[in-house]
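Title: Comparing notes on inverse folding

I've been comparing how different people in this forum approach sequence design from structure. To keep things fair, I'm posting one structure and asking everyone to reply with a full sequence. Here's the target:
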């Protein structure tokens, strides 16, 4: 499996996966526009030239936000999401990202388990955040300063 930045030519395939995974799917145009923003990055995990999953992040100064992560149903439970997340964290850290944020559906125990396994902790609940179906979001974060032992002065 290879995790790398997505190309604009892959936006249509990412949008197709969006529609298969999310009830509030981003359009191909929305993904292309995101790819053009200097504060956004889109990554894909590919297996034998097939996109197995993708992730979209925003970064500002020393903070990152994971806004989308999805894995094609044929590739689930094969470490794709973990590889994407590990790459985002590692590359982010190389660029000075020390604090990561995300929100996840309260019912998505598998994703919450993945995030906890990478050091994310629960920060709170955003009531009624998701629609179709209506559901709370669990807010999670990862502070790399704490993990690396860096102390604030």
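Reply #1:
Here's my take.
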């Amino acid at each position: 499996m290879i995790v790398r930045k997505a190309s604009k030519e892959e936006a249509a395939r990412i949008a197709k996966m969006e529609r298969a995974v999310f009830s509030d799917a981003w359009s191909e145009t929305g993904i292309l526009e995101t790819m053009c923003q200097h504060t956004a990055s889109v990554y894909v995990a590919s297996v034998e030239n097939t996109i197995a999953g993708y992730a979209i992040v925003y970064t500002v100064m020393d903070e990152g936000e994971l806004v989308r992560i999805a894995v094609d149903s044929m590739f689930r439970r094969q470490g794709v999401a973990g590889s994407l997340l590990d790459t985002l964290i590692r590359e982010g850290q190389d660029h000075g990202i020390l604090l990561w944020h995300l929100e996840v559906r309260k019912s998505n125990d598998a994703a919450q388990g993945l995030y906890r396994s990478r050091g994310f902790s629960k920060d709170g609940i955003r009531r009624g955040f998701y629609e179709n179906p209506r559901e709370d979001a669990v807010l999670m974060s990862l502070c790399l300063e704490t993990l690396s032992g860096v102390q604030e002065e």
